[in-house]
Write a structure and sequence with these properties.
Order of helices and strands: HHEHHHEEHEEHE
Distance between the termini: 56 Å
Strand order of the largest sheet: 4-5-1-6
Number of strands: 6
Oligomer: single chain
Helix content: 40-55%
Strand content: 5-15%
Number of helices: 7
Largest sheet: 4 strands, antiparallel
């Protein structure tokens, strides 16, 4: 199964172009890139003594709650051929799981949502879904950074940032996807920066 998943993953990567805001599960990008971009933005504003407000947003348990219908929708939006989508659907048809604990093992139960844990294909599928459903809300790097199910938004005014966060919450609530459950807003204090 892993070989088929890798073949499909490679094919999807050749078809789909993601926004440059993604730093998680993307070849050639990683945590260091996201941290570096955020840090440069913060340092630039501190040095010029300009205010900067940053919100960190989290889609709680997003990996486990992506509806399969949303996956098929986003693949079609990205012009993935139906035959390739049908191969992916085959991997998600009649899947089940069970829970092992020291006392016993549960009965099998169907898996109807989420991308598969441990699958070679799942990270890219998840990023494609996130990129598609947030495409209209993204701004250029470093004002918007996405890393898996985490989002960093930045703005020079608190009010504008709060409006953007509310817009994200409202927009994401339209999709049958996980809710934006946590956010923290930070502000640099340019008046207290020392050179």
């Amino acid at each position: 199964m892993k070989i088929l998943e890798r073949i499909i993953d490679k094919r999807l990567c050749s078809i789909i172009t993601l926004s440059t805001n993604h730093r998680g599960f993307v070849k050639g990008c990683g945590t260091i890139d996201a941290i570096h971009a955020a840090r440069l933005l913060l340092e630039k504003h501190c040095e010029s003594r300009k205010p900067l407000h940053i919100a960190f947003l989290d889609l709680e348990k997003a990996f486990d709650h992506v509806p399969h219908q949303l996956i098929w929708y986003t693949l079609r939006e990205r012009q993935v051929p139906e035959q390739l989508i049908s191969w992916i659907k085959m991997l998600y048809t009649n899947t089940s799981s069970h829970v092992h604990c020291p006392a016993s093992t549960s009965d099998n139960f169907p898996i109807c949502v989420g991308v598969h844990q441990g699958s070679a294909l799942s990270p890219f599928l998840f990023v494609v879904v996130m990129d598609t459903i947030t495409h209209d809300l993204q701004q250029s790097i470093p004002w918007t950074l996405l890393y898996a199910d985490d989002v960093m938004r930045a703005n020079t005014t608190r009010g504008s940032l709060q409006e953007q966060v509310l817009l994200w919450k409202s927009y994401l609530s339209q999709w049958p996807a996980p809710e934006l459950t946590q956010n923290q807003i930070f502000r640099n204090q340019p008046n207290h920066v020392h050179h």
